[in-house]
């Protein structure tokens, strides 16, 4: 055992003179580990007996042999039993001898027992040319270790006595029905009963996908970000919700078209569709009332704020069931351009709570999308049942609306073509940017871009313009290599943009791509190509057979009951709500009577006139 310390002193100098001249002092070696202390290293004689006798039962073995275990659900655990009889534990030869004390009488039995095979060598060096390959362990059943552990625990656990619970066992249960009476559902159709026509079946998805009304709740969403589900089909066909019924008119605008030759019939039918689908006067008034009511409610709490409409509603080019896009502008944004609303999630949720408590929205329809790049509020208006989208401190939509009004004055045919393209994409679920579709302003841009590069005399026939649109974007235009520039009109080669997306340069901001979110542009252009051939074949068929059917039926025939119901609802609101009384015109007065004629006498009333009337008994 070394001493706890050691003094070394100064030894002979090492190295050159002046180096390592520092004296070495006394040091103490580091402490030893606890396991090496003399007290713990002392040896004692092994005692044959335990220090403390075993008083309790012998514990079960902690580990069992793998050879004695089985992971099968049906096989019982084959554990070693210490209570086996001594005769069962002996070898087979000894057990036979023990059956009879006479060894000679057991000789025939022992002779019948085959001799044990010689033990295999524990190790050998196999011949690499003649030996078989090692067995493939992947072909054998793998042992489930978890099942082995569970079964071993159950086998080692002591058996618990069964506790009789009178409540669980239903000891005092008294049956009031007949013995063996099985309960069957009532009023159920037979198993093989006919289901009727497929078009009359009630589908659960129809109510969920139709337009929300004032009594409906918002559509269920799959994620917390408010992203809608993909609704389009991979072949760009019409959605099932828009498919017309058998006894329904799929083209309600065709009634106002006068049968003419095929050359001008498509032109007149497109105009008839535009006049049928464009907003009526009362629709514009009812929608504007939503903006006014919302602005008054916000100005009571936030002084000086303004609410403006943008998108299709502001341009007057919207479908009957379209949403209302609004933007809330703060006073600081209108003065300095610095955003004050919508910058924090808590502020967006506060606006959502204000809309709920103000009585403007249907209960349970307010939805706040605060985590998006552009925060937005969605709800259903309580009075009209229309859907409202509210954004904050963003004037890009207002600038786009001014640009649309300029294009509308330059190209009168543009709104007509845009209405047909919007309806065409809506029927196929390809008109929503969140699901990869083409938005309303992007549709306006591609239609305007086509008109910018065409002679003005071709705008007179809208039918040929529609065919040219489907032909150009369905068969000619290559969106992978070419981008669209609106101001000045032209095209450019795509270098850094995504080749799988459509690129349209924002006319108000050249650094912004307004169609970057259209992921399904390849499917949309493929639908345009199919629409071109459908219209062309329809025109050729009508020209050969001299038919007076609808030409647009080939691309936009659908179930338009939703449009009709929405207009009836808005008309009812317009006729009954007191704030619209000043817009309702009184009925025209009766025409004046000719000179010299007196008005006819009023009809007789009262019981006396009834008795004097012929054929009436008192």
UniProtKB/TrEMBL annotation:
Classification via InterPro entries: MTPAP-like_central, NT_sf, PAP_assoc, Trf4-like
Cytoplasm recorded as keyword: no
Listed GO CC annotations: nucleolus; TRAMP complex
A Gene Ontology BP annotation from the UniProt entry: polyadenylation-dependent ncRNA catabolic process
Compositional bias segments (type: Acidic residues): 68-86
Ranges of Basic and acidic residues composition bias in the record: 34-47
Biased composition (Low complexity): 1-20
Record SUPFAM superfamilies: Nucleotidyltransferase, PAP/OAS1 substrate-binding domain
UniProt entry keywords in alphabetical sequence: Magnesium, Metal-binding
GO molecular-function terms, A-Z: metal ion binding; mRNA binding; poly(A) RNA polymerase activity
Broad EC category: transferase
Ranges of Pro residues composition bias in the record: 585-606
Enzyme Commission identifier(s): 2.7.7.19
Residue span(s) of domain PAP-associated: 461-512
All residue ranges annotated as the Poly(A) RNA polymerase mitochondrial-like central palm domain in the record: 266-404
The protein's name in its UniProt record: polynucleotide adenylyltransferase
Region of interest (Disordered), ranges: 1-99, 113-141, 177-226, 580-618
Family statement drawn from the similarity comment of this UniProt entry: Belongs to the DNA polymerase type-B-like family.
């Amino acid at each position: 055992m070394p001493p706890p310390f050691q003094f070394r002193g100064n030894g002979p100098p090492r190295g050159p003179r002046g180096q390592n001249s520092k004296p070495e002092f006394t040091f103490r070696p580091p402490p030893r580990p606890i396991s090496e202390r003399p007290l713990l290293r002392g040896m004692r004689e092994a005692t044959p007996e335990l220090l403390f006798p075993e008083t309790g039962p012998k514990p079960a073995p902690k580990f069992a042999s793998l050879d004695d275990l089985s992971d099968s659900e049906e096989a019982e655990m084959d554990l070693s039993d210490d209570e086996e009889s001594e005769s069962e534990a002996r070898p087979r030869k000894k057990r036979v001898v023990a059956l009879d004390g006479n060894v000679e009488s057991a000789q025939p039995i022992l002779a019948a027992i085959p001799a044990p095979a010689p033990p295999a060598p524990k190790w050998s060096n196999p011949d690499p040319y003649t030996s078989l390959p090692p067995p493939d362990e992947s072909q054998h059943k793998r042992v489930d270790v978890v099942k082995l552990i569970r079964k071993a625990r159950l086998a080692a656990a002591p058996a618990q006595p069964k506790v009789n619970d009178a409540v669980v066992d239903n000891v005092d249960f008294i049956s009031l029905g007949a013995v063996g009476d099985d309960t069957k559902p009532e009023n159920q159709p037979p198993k093989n009963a006919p289901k009727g026509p497929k078009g009359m079946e009630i589908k659960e998805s129809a109510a969920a996908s139709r337009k929300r009304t004032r009594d409906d709740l918002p559509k269920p969403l799959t994620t917390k970000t408010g992203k809608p589900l993909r609704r389009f089909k991979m072949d760009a066909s019409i959605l099932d919700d828009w498919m017309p019924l058998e006894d329904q008119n799929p083209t309600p605008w065709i009634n106002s078209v006068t049968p003419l030759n095929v050359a001008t019939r498509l032109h007149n039918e497109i105009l008839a569709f535009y006049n049928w689908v464009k907003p009526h006067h009362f629709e514009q008034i009812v929608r504007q009332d939503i903006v006014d009511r919302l602005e008054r409610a916000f100005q009571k709490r936030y002084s000086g704020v303004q609410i403006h409409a943008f998108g299709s509603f502001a341009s007057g080019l919207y479908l009957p069931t379209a949403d209302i896009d609004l933007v809330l502008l703060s006073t600081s944004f209108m003065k300095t351009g610095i955003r004050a609303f919508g910058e924090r999630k808590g502020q967006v949720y506060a606006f959502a709570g204000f809309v709920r408590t103000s009585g403007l929205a249907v209960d349970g329809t307010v939805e706040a999308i605060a985590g998006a790049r552009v925060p937005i509020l969605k709800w259903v208006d309580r009075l009209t049942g229309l859907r409202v989208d509210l954004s904050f401190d963003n004037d890009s939509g207002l600038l786009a609306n001014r640009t649309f009004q300029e294009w509308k004055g330059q190209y009168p045919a543009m709104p007509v073509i845009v209405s047909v393209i919007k309806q065409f994409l809506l029927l196929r679920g390809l008109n929503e940017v969140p699901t990869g579709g083409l938005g309303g302003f992007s549709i306006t841009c591609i239609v305007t871009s086509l008109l910018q590069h065409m002679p003005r005399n071709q705008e007179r026939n809208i039918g040929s313009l529609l065919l040219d649109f489907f032909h150009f974007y369905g068969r000619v235009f290559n969106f992978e290599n070419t981008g669209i520039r609106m101001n000045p009109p032209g095209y450019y080669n795509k270098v850094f943009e995504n080749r799988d997306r459509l690129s349209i340069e924002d006319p108000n901001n050249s650094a912004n791509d307004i169609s970057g979110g259209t992921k399904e542009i390849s499917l949309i252009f493929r639908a345009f190509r199919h629409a071109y051939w459908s219209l062309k074949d329809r025109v050729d068929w009508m020209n050969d057979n001299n038919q007076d059917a609808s030409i647009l039926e080939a691309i936009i025939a659908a179930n338009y009951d939703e449009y009709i119901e929405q207009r009836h609802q808005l008309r009812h609101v317009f006729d009954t709500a007191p704030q619209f009384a000043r817009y309702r015109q009184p009925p025209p007065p009766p025409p004046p009577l000719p000179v010299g004629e007196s008005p006819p006498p009023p009809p007789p009333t009262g019981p006396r006139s009834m008795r004097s009337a012929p054929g009436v008994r008192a």
